[in-house]
């Protein structure tokens, strides 16, 4: 709805960093076509296949989690969730409903992987990305509760030891 000159001005004000550098020469030329700049920007910076590959690359490159490490599990859950959101944003939901490749499951610690595989093979399970993401989030929540319980238990044991030491010190004197 804008005239070509107005669109060029708006583009120049809106674009920053690599996108502006990418089209600056066209913007500065006397016969600039705003629609050509827009299509080139979309091709360069919003290529769905490139975006999907980048998102999947983050999932693939994630290191195997060797133990129940809260930070690593949270980070992996975020990477999976980000990929799912990316699929949804660019309407690639087919990737989300497909079976999850084993290499992504294998990044889990062994005992958590066994739990996931048991869950995945239940009659109601689909083994989808969404299900895996929910499983990871629940595992992180469970781990937080487990760690809180352990800290609470350790704290109680420490207090009991201190009380026992005081009682023993009292009897000794």
Radius of gyration: 27 Å
Determine the number of helices (DSSP H or I, runs of at least 4 residues): 9
Bulk shape = elongated
- Rounded average pLDDT: 80
User: What percentage of amino acids are in beta strands?
Assistant: under 5%
H and E string:
HHHHHHHHH
Number of strands: 0
Uncertain segments are none
What gap, in angstroms, lies between the N and C termini? 92 Å
Give the helix proportion (percent range).
over 70%
- Structural classification: mainly alpha
Task: List the topology elements.
Elements: H1 4-14, H2 17-28, H3 34-45, H4 48-61, H5 70-89, H6 93-97, H7 102-105, H8 110-120, H9 129-172
Helix pairs in contact: 2-3, 4-5, 5-9
Could you explain how this protein is built, in words?
- The protein has helices at residues 4-14, 17-28, 34-45, 48-61, 70-89, 93-97, 102-105, 110-120, 129-172.
- With 173 residues, it is mainly α.
- Helix 2 (17-28) packs antiparallel against helix 3.
- The model has no long low-confidence stretch (mean pLDDT 80).
């Amino acid at each position: 709805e804008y005239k070509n000159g107005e669109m060029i001005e708006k583009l120049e004000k809106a674009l920053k960093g690599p996108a502006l550098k990418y089209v600056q020469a066209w913007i500065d030329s006397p016969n600039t076509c705003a629609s050509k700049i827009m299509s080139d920007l979309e091709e360069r910076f919003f290529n769905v296949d490139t975006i999907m590959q980048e998102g999947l690359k983050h999932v693939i490159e994630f290191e195997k989690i060797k133990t129940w490490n809260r930070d690593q599990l949270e980070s992996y859950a975020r990477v999976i969730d980000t990929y799912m959101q990316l699929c949804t944003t660019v309407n690639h939901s087919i990737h989300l409903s497909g079976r999850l490749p084993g290499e992504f499951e294998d990044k889990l610690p062994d005992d958590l992987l066994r739990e996931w595989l048991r869950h995945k093979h239940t009659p109601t399970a689909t083994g989808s990305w969404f299900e895996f993401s929910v499983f990871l989030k629940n595992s992180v929540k469970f781990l937080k509760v487990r760690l809180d319980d352990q800290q609470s238990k350790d704290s109680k044991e420490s207090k009991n030891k201190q009380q026992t030491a005081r009682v023993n010190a009292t009897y000794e004197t």
